[in-house]
Task: inverse folding
């Protein structure tokens, strides 16, 4: 029987009180952004905010607990932004939307920082035995967003990014699942030859953990060839953004199949309209019905994207809806 798991791709909004406190403590200039060596007051504020978002996940009954990535000024580029071999340059637009990040420019050999591992260790202590989920940008998206001024070859640079993330995962505490966020596979898809290398890079990062690995593209559907190559990676689930593109995602599954587990992005991580739990459950059943005889071992019910731009109360309501929808789906399946 299918197991339904409520979760999210992380990237949560700061509690309102933390936004106010950090605005006073950090400021808004480039030199005020996270670098990995924050002072005691800033560190304490993030620690308290982390407690808040983990409490929220536990109170809502979410099946996977994430750290929340509250320290991440750059919602995908953060792991590079805090690395010694990286210089952060000007503000750049993410793809074609209204999100921005600091351009990470790699100037030397990349070495793991342990920054994300320390966040997860703190989250594991707060989770008190609940199933922990790690979140990282996927290697292709990080490669796509970064600038290389050291390796000199696209293939070598992508391999170096994958090795960097592999080293980060090696340092993680025990975790049940790992979400690799790969919007660049949709927004700036790899060309012929590069699509195979992207799959190999994802495979390398996934091999660094015994946890279930979910690759979560979003803001659309993957091109057919990119999707087919992604299935070559040794991953446990592919995520599908059914908010942004329903038809093409269904086509990919029907035409090429998918993994034994699946992540369904059925709640909008960037829209303040809160979905009804019964509606999410019904959409889950609709997807299942479109696939005929396919029966997944595990279905992860999730927002399609992180919720970092939502008002804090709306983010809480989205989590509540996902947790209840998973419970309803379990009852229906039984």
Result:
């Amino acid at each position: 029987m299918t197991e339904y798991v409520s979760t999210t791709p992380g990237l949560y909004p700061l509690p309102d009180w933390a936004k106010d406190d950090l605005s006073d403590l950090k400021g808004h200039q480039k030199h005020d952004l996270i670098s990995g060596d924050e002072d005691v007051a800033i560190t304490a504020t993030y620690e308290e905010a982390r407690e808040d978002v983990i409490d929220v996940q536990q109170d809502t009954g979410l099946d996977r607990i994430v750290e929340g990535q509250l320290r991440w000024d750059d919602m995908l580029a953060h792991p590079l932004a805090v690395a010694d071999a990286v210089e952060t340059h000007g503000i750049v637009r993410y793809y074609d939307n209204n999100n921005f990040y600091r351009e990470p420019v790699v100037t030397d050999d990349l070495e793991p920082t342990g920054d994300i591992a320390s966040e997860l260790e703190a989250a594991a202590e707060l989770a008190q035995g609940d199933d922990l989920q790690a979140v990282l940008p996927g290697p292709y998206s990080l490669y796509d967003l970064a600038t290389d001024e050291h390796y000199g070859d696209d293939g070598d640079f992508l391999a170096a990014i994958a090795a960097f993330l592999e080293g980060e995962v090696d340092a993680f505490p025990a975790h049940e699942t790992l979400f690799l966020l790969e919007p660049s596979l949709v927004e700036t898809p790899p060309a012929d030859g590069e699509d195979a290398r992207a799959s190999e890079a994802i495979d390398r990062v996934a091999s660094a953990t015994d946890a279930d690995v979910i690759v979560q593209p979003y803001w659309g559907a993957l091109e057919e060839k990119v999707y087919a190559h992604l299935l070559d990676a040794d991953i446990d689930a592919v995520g599908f953004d059914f908010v942004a593109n329903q038809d093409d995602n269904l086509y990919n599954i029907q035409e090429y199949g998918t993994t034994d587990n699946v992540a369904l992005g059925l709640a909008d991580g960037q829209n303040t309209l809160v979905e009804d739990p019964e509606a999410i459950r019904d959409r889950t059943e609709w997807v299942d019905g479109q696939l005929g005889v396919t029966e997944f071992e595990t279905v992860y019910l999730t927002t399609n994207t992180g919720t970092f731009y939502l008002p804090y109360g709306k983010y809480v309501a989205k989590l509540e809806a996902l947790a209840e929808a998973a419970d309803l789906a379990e009852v229906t399946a039984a």
Remarks:
- Residues 47 and 122 are 8 Å apart (CA to CA).
- DSSP finds twelve helices and eleven strands in the chain.
- The longest strand covers residues 86-93.
- The longest helix spans residues 312-333.
